Amino acid sequence: MNYELTPTILMVPGLRDHVPEHWQTLLEQRLPKARSVPPLEHDKLSCGARVAALDAALARISGPVILVAHSAGVMITVHWAAQHKRQIHGALLAAPADIETPLPPGYPERQTLEQNGWLPIPRQRLPFPSIVGASRNDPLARFERVQDMAQDWGSRFVDLGEVGHLNPPAGFGEWPMAETLIRRLVLM
Asked: Does the record carry Hydrolase as a key word (predicted)?
C-alpha cells in the first residue's frame, strides 16, 4: 500500500476537547496516520478560534485528509468548509450537536453560542464527500434535524440507531463502526 496516498485522519473533537476514553481519542491512538486538532488554551467557546485551530492543523498535513468530527466538531467542520478552500478527501460527521435548538443543562446557551460565532449553522453543500451519522436518541439533536442537515450538506446519511450522543456517558469508548465509515470515505 502506498502510504503517501493514504489519507491522514484528522480528528475534530467537540467542545469537551480530548477525552481519554472517547472513541475519537482511542481511534487516533490505533490508526497509523491519525492526528487530532489540538485543544485550545484560550477562547474555548469561540467558533472562529476553533475554525482557525482546524485550519492550522490542516496546514501541517500534506496529502489527502479525512476529517472525523463529533458533536460541536461537526459544526467546526462545516464552518471551516464555508470559509476555506483546501481539498478534503472526505469527512465523517458523527452525532452533530444541533446548536440552533436549546441544549440540555451544562451546555452553552443559545445567546452564548450566537455571541461566539456558532450561529447560524452553515447549511450549504459541502465541497467534499461526507457521511453524517445520527442517533435516534441523541439529547443534543433530534434525528429529523440531523437528517435535514445531512441533506443540506449533500452528505450520505447513516442511521446509527439508539446510541445517545455517541460519547462515553452513552457507553461509547470504542466505536468500531467509525473505521467502517472511514473506509467508505477512503473509497469515495
From this structure: yes
Q: For residue 106, which amino acid is it?
A: G
**pLDDT tens per residue across span 140-160:** 999 999 999 999 999 999 999
Beta bridge partners of 134: 159
- The Cα–Cα gap between 99 and 84 comes to 22
The answer to pTM > 0.90 is yes
> Nearest to residue 73, comparing CAs of 127, 137, 128, 140?
140
Strand order of the β-sheet with 90-94 is 34-36, 8-12, 65-70, 90-94, 130-134, 156-159
Within 10 Å of residue 137's Cβ, how many Cβ atoms? 13
User: Which residues lie below 8 Å from residue 66, measured CB to CB, with a gap of 6+?
Assistant: 7, 8, 9, 10, 88, 89, 90, 91, 92, 182, 185, 186
Rounded CA-CA distance 183/188 in Å is 9
To which CATH superfamily is domain 8-187 assigned? Alpha/Beta hydrolase fold, catalytic domain (3.40.50.1820)
Give residue-wise pLDDT tens across range 81-116: 999 999 999 999 999 999 999 888 888 898 999 999
